[in-house]
Amino acid sequence: MDTTTPPVNTTHAPSPQIISQDRVKFSGKAGEFFGIWTVNILLSILTLGIYSAWAKVRTYRYFYSNTSIDGHSFDYLATPIQILKGRILAVAVFVIYSLVIQFFPTFGILLAICLLFAMPWIINQGLRFNMRMTRHRNVRFAFAGNYGEAFINFIILPIASIFTLYLLLPYALKRIDQYMHENISYGNKPITVNLQGEKYYMAALITIGVTIAGLVIFGIILGLTGTAMGIGAIDAENIHPSTIIFPVLIAALYVAFLTLVSAVYQSIIRNHILNNSEFEDVASFKSDLKAVQYAMLLFTNAFAIIFTLGMAYPWAKIRKARLLCSATEVTIYHGAIAIIDTAEQQQSSFAEEAANVFDIDISLT
To answer: Which of 9, 79, 147, 336 is the least buried, fewest Cβ under 10 Å from its Cβ?
Structure first.
């Protein structure tokens, strides 16, 4: 009897051949974008908002063209007329909704319910339009979400989280991110996304911890400020410097606190999404955005915009784009060469603009 153990097959699937591995590059400059931004603002005012469609396209094209992977920049393909048509329709719907609410409250409630059911369609169409208008290396992106999944993720789960005292909220946010990203494709290649619910709960707990610690520190400083201002108020003839310095300090700390909390959550979730997403045999991603660095950027951006009455906005936007790109690494594999662009289809911008009018955030990481 032959008792020889058969050889174990230790052969593994070969790793995909890497073409390039590098950080995303951003070459935009604050001075250049300041000129675009200034013209956009002035012409939008002079044309009573009509030029805003051209302003949006110019802004998107500037940032897309200055963002590159492996030496190839992105293209934004939407035209101002597409944006303008969609914006006019969306504003018309919003005006009708506002008038109905004002003069026919009962019908307004029904219209609000209809809008609630229309929201998943608006979100899907907005994402589909944005993806379809984005191109890299002459290959367009696409979005393949459906109404049923969008309704569950954007409507049912957020509402259900209210009845669980928001214990379900991190899971709902995970499902929303999973849905938005896993339905993206590059040409004919869908993306694979594997997000973990526990990561969202961990991010929520860390954010809550930072919030509690910040509130304690904020409360102590506020108490000291009140005491110092009380002392200054007693000496009415000789105003104590603290009555001026401390309120400014409190405002600065408040802004710093909000940006820190926001940066902690955003950095954890952004890193998790990108580190667990890939176009198989085409590209994989890595993000190492640091919460403290991101918080400092958001904080200084906010203060620069406030103290310059908005004039530092272009500088702030360029800084943020540069940091996010530098924190992102993309590995491109040999399979990218075989990507075939899917048949081009004309998309409407109505849904995207409707989403903007009704303040629905459908941005991606």
So the answer is: 9
